[in-house]
Amino acid sequence: MGVSFQYVHKAFDIVNGKPKYILKDVNLEIADGEFICVLGKSGCGKSTLLNLLAGYLKPDKGRICVNGKDVDGPSVERGVVFQQHALFPWYTVRQNIEFGLRIQKREDAAEVATRFIKMIGLEAYENAYPSELSGGMAQRVGIARALVNDPQVLLMDEPLGALDALTRDAMRKELIRIWQLSKKTIFFITHSVPEAVYLADRVVILKDGRVSLDERIDLPRPRDIRSVAFQDYVDLFSHQIADVAIEEAVIAE
Ligand SMILES: Nc1ncnc2c1ncn2[C@@H]1O[C@H](COP(=O)(O)OP(=O)(O)O)[C@@H](O)[C@H]1O
Ligand SMILES: [Mg+2]
């Protein structure tokens, strides 16, 4: 079960009568509850892969399955969190989180929202509007909004990329905590190598349209970014990707 990409191809353009594949023959199996980080250079097709899994795009060849069922369009089973949180500015934190539940006419909407407001630690802000929140708080609301629908997979496209370094660091820890509580499968895209090593059970590198490396991170959690073993993974992946800037990992324990 879990998520499976088989022989996935995707092109946007035809060049000299042939499709120019951004993704070609991507194969990937993700187990339930696994935290996968996808790394790769800008433009290598990371967002395209996420959009295929989200169901926003269709593969030209191959198939994508979630729990044995082919992905056929977007679904609440696959919750998406973007870099720029897409909160409704005219709704409070609570109303934003309840929104999806109300659409489904869930009678327990208020109760479920309360649980997630607690999980993201924003009890004191439940009646605040998005404009009154910091970037990190707004991103936590975005995550809660995806989680309330109880998705099987959480899809995150550089969700921390717009945050300042200290907030990003706090959010990484927060995300691990939420993941451990919610036990969701997480498909997480980043261009930060240390971020991937900090977060992932497995790191997948996309290169030339294919999975060029698929490596388990064999480090205990919470991870010590100062350890030699941590740095070894960072070096390994940075070399694989090449010319990707190695971000200084700012971590305050
Ligand atoms: N909707 C689209 N139409 C045409 N080209 C696209 C579209 N989406 C992405 N591309 C192209 O596909 C390549 C991969 O893009 P993307 O998946 O966004 O990369 P990444 O997220 O790794 O930076 C880029 O060359 C981009 O210009
Ligand atoms: Mg992208």
The overall pLDDT average reads 92
Can you say what the CATH homologous superfamily of the domain at 3-77 and 151-241 is? Answer: P-loop containing nucleotide triphosphate hydrolases
Amount of helix: 25-40%
Structure ligands: adenosine-5'-diphosphate, magnesium ion
Q: Segments where pLDDT lies below 50 for 5+ residues?
A: 244-250
What is the number of beta strands? Answer: 10
How far apart the termini lie comes to 36 Å
**Content of β-strand:** 25-35%
- Named CATH architecture of the domain at 3-77 and 151-241: 3-Layer(aba) Sandwich
Read across the widest sheet, the strand sequence of neighbours is 6-7-8-3-9-10
Shape: globular
Report on the architecture of this protein.
This protein starts with a strand and ends in a 12-residue tail after the last helix. It is globular, with a radius of gyration of 18 Å. The protein has 253 residues and is an alpha/beta fold. It is 33% helix and 26% strand. The chain has helices at residues 46-54, 93-103, 109-119, 135-147, 165-182, 193-199, 228-241; strands at 3-15, 18-30, 35-39, 61-66, 69-70, 78-81, 153-157, 185-189, 202-207, 210-216. The chain binds adenosine-5'-diphosphate and magnesium ion. Magnesium ion is lined by residues 46-47, 157. Magnesium ion binds at residues 46-47, 157.
